Amino acid sequence: MRLSILDQAPISTSQTPQQALIAAMKLAQAGEKFGYSRYWIAEHHDLPGLACPAPEVMLSYIGAHTTGIRIGSGAVLLPHYKPYKVAEVYNLLATLFPGRIDVGIGRAPGGTTEATNALSDHFLQNVWNMPDKVRDLLYFIEDNFPAEHPYANLSAAPIPPIAPEPWLLGTGKKSAMLAAEYGLSFAFGLFMSDSNAAAIIQQYKEAFKPRKQGQKPEVILTVSAICAETTERAEELALSPLIWSIQRGKGEGLNGVPSIEEAKQYVLTEKESEALQKMKQKMIIGNPQMTGQKLKELRSKYQADEIMIVTITHEPEDKVRSYLLIAEEVINKQ
């Protein structure tokens, strides 16, 4: 079973943004060492506690400090940008790091309304035009425009020896059907979706139209997981991101992911306690054996080709340790 990493580059209360970004790079290095297939970093705007508004910048930094792991965006929020510019950026990355670049595409705003308005005009119209944007991006990164297209003679130089691998990311049927229509691999964000994932993934596979000869539908399932030597320790580590999520929902948590001690001291209302329990149900929290078994069950249930794991802890060392324990249980025992 292939495993990968999704990193949101969270900032802990004990970190500066620079330290959080360096920790992100070190996580990619650790993932490469542990046998993870790919490392993706997310794009967020004006969200306190998240350090990366520009995956393409981080990918150049991470690519220079790794040698083999695939690296990519999770995701480029395409409604904010022109496809040509995105193609130029990821072609450049693929030229620097041949055969290693993924360009994950998403449609979400990734931040506040003010940030969305500052980034791009007519965001909702751009979301509506998402199919055209995806089509043109594919034309550019594959250097394969139809002769009648107005950009047929335009190149998103440099043209790399191996084109970036495009993925469409989503949490619902609309994204799945768009991925199927354009013959794109699909990454489903199970950790942030209440949709019927099994049905959506099956519909994607049934509707898939190959873009290239021999191409088959490919699915990544993204889940939230925290692993430690014991389930009790994993539960303790998970308290930090869970409390942070409660805080952010109230406009608090501006200083980032709280420590375990800070999280334990946070007083929850009855309603917040119920919300926390619901969030825990969407996570995998446990020892290596329990975590590995649940990952295998999810892969089987959703017929995923790969499981991508997002892990948030207060201490970077605990996050790296979680990925190590999972790799030892799942990757090394195959």
Automatic annotation (TrEMBL):
Residue ranges of every copy of the Luciferase-like domain listed in the record: 1-299
Source organism, top-level taxon: Bacteria
One Pfam family per UniProt: Bac_luciferase
InterPro entries (alphabetical): Bact_Lucif_Oxidored, CmoO-like, Luciferase-like_dom, Luciferase-like_sf
PANTHER family: LUCIFERASE-LIKE MONOOXYGENASE (PTHR30137)
Family membership noted in the UniProt record: To bacterial alkanal monooxygenase alpha and beta chains.
Entries under NCBIfam families matching the protein: oxido_grp_1
Protein's recorded name: Luciferase-like domain-containing protein
Gene source species: Neobacillus kokaensis
Highest classification ranks of the organism: Bacteria, Bacillati, Bacillota, Bacilli, Bacillales
